[in-house]
Amino acid sequence: MGIGFFLAQPFAQHALAAAFLVAMSCGLIGPFVVTRGMSFAVHGVAELALTGAAAGLLAADNAVAGAFVGSLVVATLIATLGARPHERDSAIGSILAFGLGIGVLLLGYYHGFATEATNILFGNIFGVSGTQIVVLIVISAAVVVVMAVWYRPLLFASVDPDVAEARGVPVRRLGLLFLLVLALTVTGAAQVVGTLLVLSLAITPAAAAQRLTANPLRVAILSVVFAVVAADGGLVASFEASTVKASVLIVSISFALYLLARIAGPAVRGRRRRAPGRDAPEALEG
After folding, report:
1. What is the C-alpha separation between 225 and 156, in angstroms, rounded?
2. Does residue 93 form part of some domain?
3. How many degrees, rounded to 5, is the angle at CA 182 between CA 251 and CA 263?
């Protein structure tokens, strides 16, 4: 059975669509995650989705709704307790430790099958349902709208928060807004691809893109392209190499793109600086 056979199957088509939507959302928020130094926040929100899922199972037998509500609570706590950059990592670490402990406690009280909750940690890319595709479309649309409306002030607040605040930019409110969008994106993606791939797609493509250009718009475009190439490319490769899990191929492609960007970055950016009309810093373009 070759790639053509798998591409004709509904489960593979759903997986490719889900991977594309997750990659697009993660690729859009990734540059801000890297610029704001919030890679640990992605990890914390993704891990604590398990606690919300466990609470959702106990309260309403609905792990997905619990995970979404839990992620919003976690995002609010991170924005409140880690408002200052130098306090953020310690706040996230404290919230993560406490939240995981609560999650284990809640799962202990649940006497049904906890598979739906633990799937949020590991995902099931080849078991994506039509309903999950719709949820991912809604999340992707919300991310696109927020990024389009708040792109410039969010970028300003991310690059130089002190100057942005002095200029009247609502830095704290933008930080909370970004964390809420991040929480929804990470939780929605984790249900499909799992925590491991969320970390890979929300951080690595953006880190690779920033190695190739300092222009924020180009970084965003490259981040999305790299994330889509890694996600859908890894899935297609897994159809051919059926003995290797798709998640392994996706993270491998993502990391390979990062390494290539690290190697090629100095030459690419050096050539841009030497090009005519490139005397102004790229970061101030567009």
Report:
1. 23
2. yes
3. 40
Dihedral in degrees, nearest 10, Cα atoms 163, 168, 170, 172? 50
Residue 126 per-residue DSSP state: G
Q: Which of 187, 248, 150, 170 is nearest to 64 (CA)?
A: 187
Residues 92/41, Cβ–Cβ less than 8 Å: yes
Domain CATH for 55: 1.10.3470.10
> Is residue 198 a contact partner of residue 128, using CB atoms and an 8 Å limit?
no
The answer to whether position 272 is within a domain reads no
Q: How many other CB atoms sit within 10 Å of the CB of residue 2?
A: 8
Report the distance separating Cα 224 and Cα 122, nearest Å.
23
d(CA 75, CA 183): 6
> CB of 71 within 8 A of CB of 187?
yes
- Helix crossing, 115-122 with 39-60: angle to 10°? 170
Q: What is the pLDDT along the chain (286 residues), one digit of tens a residue?
A: 667 777 788 888 989 999 999 999 999 999 999 998 888 888 888 878 878 888 888 888 887 788 888 888 988 898 888 877 778 889 989 998 999 899 888 888 877 666 666 666 667 788 888 888 898 899 899 999 998 999 999 999 888 888 988 889 898 889 889 988 988 888 888 777 777 678 889 999 999 999 999 899 999 999 999 999 999 999 999 888 878 888 888 989 999 999 999 999 888 777 766 665 554 444 444 4
Domain of 220 in residue numbering reads as 3-262
Length of the chain in residues, anyone?
286
Q: What is the count of structural domains for the chain?
A: 1
21, amino acid identity: L
